[in-house]
Amino acid sequence: MKQRPLKNLFRIFLLIALGQTFGLAAAQSYPNKSIRIVVPFPAGGGTDIVARILANDISKDIGQNIMVENKGGANGILGADLVAKSAPDGYTIVMSTMGNFAVNPAIYPNSPVNIERDLVPVTEVVSVPLMLTIHPSIPAKTIQEFIAYAKAQKDPVTYSSSGTGGGPHLAGALFVMASGVNMLHIPFKGSSPAYAATIGGQVSAIFDSVVQGAPYVKNGQLRALAVTNSKRSALLPDVPAMSEVLPTYDVNNWYAIMAPTGTPLEIRQYLYRAVKKSLDKPEIKARLIADGVEPVGSSPEEFGKYLKEQTKLWAEVVKTAGIKLE
Fold first, then answer.
1. What's the burial of 279, exposed, middle or buried (CB within 10 Å: 0-12/13-18/19+)?
2. Which end of the chain, N or C, is less surrounded by CB atoms within 10 Å?
3. For the chain, what is the mean pLDDT?
C-alpha cells in the first residue's frame, strides 16, 4: 500500500515522457496534411490579403495546401477563440493584428480567449505603417503647425479611425499623449466611412494605414502630415516620420501568426522559417511593399518578447487615455 504513491508518480512521469515523445514525432513528420490559417476579419482586408499571398507561396514550398478561412466578429475575438480551442498540432493557426493580439486584452478583460494563456507566438509577419492626414481646410502644412493649430483651438480637433481599440485609434491616442493636444476621437465601422467623413470635412483628421491613405493624398483630397513609425514610407517618401518631431513616438500596426498553446516549438519554428523564406523572396517582398506593408519575419522568441512589450505599452495607453468600448 505504501508503494502506491510511488507507482502513481511513476505513471505521471511515464505519461509526460510519452507525451513528449509523441509531440516530437508529430513535429518531425510535420506537415503531412493541409494547414488552415484563420483570419479573424472579413475577406478583402489587409490581413486577409497578406495571408493569402503567403499561403499561396508557402504551399508550393512545403508541398501541402494552405487554406485561409475568414472568421470575423467581435474585433477579432471569435477567430482567435476558434484557434485557441483547436488542437495544438500546427494545422490550425491564426493571423491577426496588433489590435487583436496586444490591445484587446486591455479592452476586453472578459474575452473568452486569453492571448497570453491560450495562444503562443509563431512570427510577426509584417509591420503596417500608419499615417496622420488632415482635411485641406486645416491651415497646417507640417506636424508642428498642426500641433500649434490644435492647441490654439477652443474646442477639441476631431480625428476619425476605423473603430474603437484598433491600431489607428491607438495611434491617435498616443499622439494626443505625446503632443499634448486636445483631440476628440470619432470612431467609424471601418476605414471607408472614416475616410468619407474626413474627406467631406465632417472630421478634421484621420489616422489610418499609409496604403489606404496614399491615394487620397496623391489626388489632393487629404494632406499627409506624418507617418506614425520611426522611418518614412516608401509609398510616400516625402512625408516625414512622426519621430522626427516627437522622438519617443513610434507606432506600427502589425500582422502576426500565433498557434494554440501546447503547439511544439519545433512546429512553430518550422512555420516561422517557411514564412521567413517566403518574405525573403524578391517578388513577394516587392508585392508586399507595393501594398504598403513591410516584411518582418521574426522568430517565435523574438515575436514573443515584442508581443509582451506591445501588450504592456497599449495597456498603459488604454488606461491613461480612458479608452472604453463605445
1. buried
2. N
3. 90
What is the structure's pLDDT at 14? 52
More confident residue, 3 or 34: 34
- 298 with 306: CB under 8 angstroms? yes
Which amino acid type is present at position 198?
Answer: T
Q: All 3 cell numbers of residue 177?
A: 499623449
- pLDDT class of 22 with cuts at 50, 70, 90: very low
pLDDT tens track for 75-111: 889 999 999 999 999 999 999 999 889 999 999 989 9
Do 257 and 94 form a contact (C-beta atoms < 8 A)?
yes
- Separation CA 263–CA 90 (nearest Å): 6
Domains, in order of start, for the chain: 12-128+254-321 (3.40.190.150), 129-244 (3.40.190.10)
Q: What cell numbers appear for 218 in the block?
A: 496623391
Query: Which of 303, 284, 255 has the alpha carbon at shortest distance from 54?
Result: 284
In the Cβ-directed half-sphere of 211, how many Cα atoms lie within 13 Å? 16
Residue 161: beta bridge partners?
Answer: 187
pTM to 2 decimals? 0.82
How many alpha carbons fall within 13 Å on the CB side of residue 55? 23
- The residue-averaged pLDDT of 243-268 equals 95
The CA-CA-CA angle for residues 251, 256, 258, to 5°, reads 135
Residue at grid coordinates 516627437: 246
Rounded Cα distance, 255 and 285, in Å: 15
Residue 97 bridge partners (DSSP):
255
The residue type at 269: Q
Q: Please, which contacts does 150-154 make with residues 24 or more away whose CB atoms are closer than 8 Å?
A: 150/179, 150/181, 150/182, 150/183, 151/180, 151/181, 151/182, 153/182
